[in-house]
Amino acid sequence: MKTKKTNNFLISYILVSILFAIISYFYIDIQLNTVIENNITDNVKYIAEIITDIGNGKYYYTILILLILYFYLINKNKNLLRKVNFSLLLMLSTNIITYISKFVIGRSRPHMYLSQEKYEFIPFNFNNSYDYASMPSGHTQTSFTVAVILCTFFPKYKYLFIIIAISSSLSRVVLSAHWLSDIIIGAVFGITIPILIIKKYKDKF
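and the corresponding structure tokens:
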């Protein structure tokens, strides 16, 4: 019964998110980005640049690798080592799927619209990976994947982890690094992929 409820929740969440992303693409993205660009202050931008680093995967990979070395060489706690290894698997799997999707989708970033008025999709565009790698947002995906992992280990603080992930995601829009619809889809990747992997390997986990 619990598995069925989880599946129904994920399907509903994905469908609602896709619908909202489509609405955002046609009616919100450009308008919101324009308002931000015309009104953002240096102080707000500075704070957003600090918050956005929460979604930088290199910090989490560094922590996970150090934990693996610690539990393998020093503490030798097999149970914790297994959990850290599984967390690394969740991060790698979700990141790889997300970044492949970026190039397959090929959406132009906000700065392309600001400088050249380009608001478009060029699928399978590998020539300029940064300019056409806006959807899904990688920082958003990483933030929510980490939140899912932490919620699994420390469910007592789940709302805190979710708020931090949302804050990191919104900072990408504030900095004009992504459109609103990009972070919506990034959250879908960051939430659904690790949850599906956890469900599949929950016995080993």
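(Above: one complete record from the training split.) Residues 2-200 form one domain.
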